[in-house]
Amino acid sequence: MEKLNSFLHIHKRIYFFIAVMSVLNALFYLLRPVKPIMTFIAETTLGIRVTVAAVFDLLPFSVAEVIILLSIAAVLFYLIKTVVGIIQSPGKGTFIIKRFSFAVAAVLFVVLLFNLFLGASYYGTDFLDKSGISVEPTTIDKLYNTTKYFALKLSETSGNVKRDEHGVFSESVDDIFRRSSSIYDNSVERFPFLEFRTNRPKKLLLSKLFSCLSYTGFYFPFTGEANINIDSPGCFMPSTIAHEMAHQRGIAYEQEANFVAIYVSINSGDPIYEYSGYLLAYVHLNNALYKYDKQKYYEVYGLLNDEVKADLSYNNKYWERFEGPVSEVTDAVYDTFLKSYGQELGIQSYGAVVDLLIAFYGESGRRSSI
């Protein structure tokens, strides 16, 4: 009788917790269209994230990576223990309900934290609102002119970085990370809302695994860390760091974070980041051009020098090794995630940076960066 009362007492508390989490999550989804509320939540939790990131900045490793690994281990342990318990428990029905209730409570709690610490940023005041940049329908000629401009700048800056005997980008990872501390300094005058304490990016120990999952990096809202895949091609690593740092500054949408990464990199005053920024812009622009005018695509590609082509070739060959079911599943999951938070284009939202680049740099592609 005592065990039964204890069981009922614990389950009442769990059911109450589940009910509270369900109500709070439902309230969040209902309030998503109310921009002022979402902005307030996003700005409040951003302050918390920046503070937490400053604390974890003292550690040389990615706390996010540790949390993810421990979480996976905890889930596997919970599942194994549940299966063993079902086999051994005399009251299987009661045991299953108990284990399922704890799992549901944990999932709802994590979902609520995620909604508050990152989800709200997708529905609050975004980069376009803050920057005043107006994106309008564009033309093939505007796309062509802007792509051509970035291709020329890319070839112009390609000689400013170290290269190996094959002509491929070979700047050291340590240098790339070390030089990231000041890359936002020259951009806060044009975009004051980007002025935050810069926390150092973190190297992922299991970078090759993240390559298998098609990740060059990710922002972890619970620790505020910018986590970088250091196994992926170095030529894109600087702009990837700038991208994840944009998320640290409250830029949620991927296309906006990509634009910020490009702008910040090419205005950083650092030749490594400048080249990587032009490279990221060119790839997005010329991929878009390929969809609409293949002749112009090849014409612009022909403007690139051998050094840039070597970097693009190396990057393509690197990622070809990881193509397969795992990367396809990862892309599908991430695509669903983006769409669930209002990014209607899903993974294609990365391509929407093209509209921002054209809108900001103008038809001639020669608008002043600052």
How is this structure best described in words?
This protein is mostly helical and 370 residues long. The chain has two domains: 2-122, no CATH class; 127-361, no CATH class. The protein has 15 helices and three strands. A three-stranded mixed beta sheet has the order 1-3-2. Helix 6 runs parallel beside helix 12 and helix 11 packs antiparallel against helix 12 (294-301). It is globular, with a radius of gyration of 23 Å.
Radius of gyration using CA atoms only? 23 Å
Shape annotation: globular
- Largest beta sheet: strand ordering: 1-3-2
In percent, how helical is the residue content?
A: 55-70%
* Residue-averaged pLDDT: 87
Q: How much beta, percentage-wise? A: under 5%
Largest sheet: 3 strands, mixed
Task: Supply the key terms.
single chain; 370 residues; mainly alpha; 2 domains; three-stranded mixed β-sheet; 15 helices; 3 strands; 63% helix; globular
Short description:
Helix content is 63%, strand content 3%.
Topology:
Blueprint: H1 2-31, H2 35-56, H3 63-88, H4 92-117, H5 127-131, H6 140-157, H7 173-178, E1 202-203, H8 207-212, E2 217-220, E3 225-228, H9 237-248, H10 254-266, H11 271-292, H12 294-301, H13 306-320, H14 325-340, H15 353-361
Parallel strand pairs: 1-3
Antiparallel strand pairs: 2-3
Helix pairs in contact: 1-4, 3-4, 6-11, 6-12, 9-10, 10-11, 10-15, 11-12
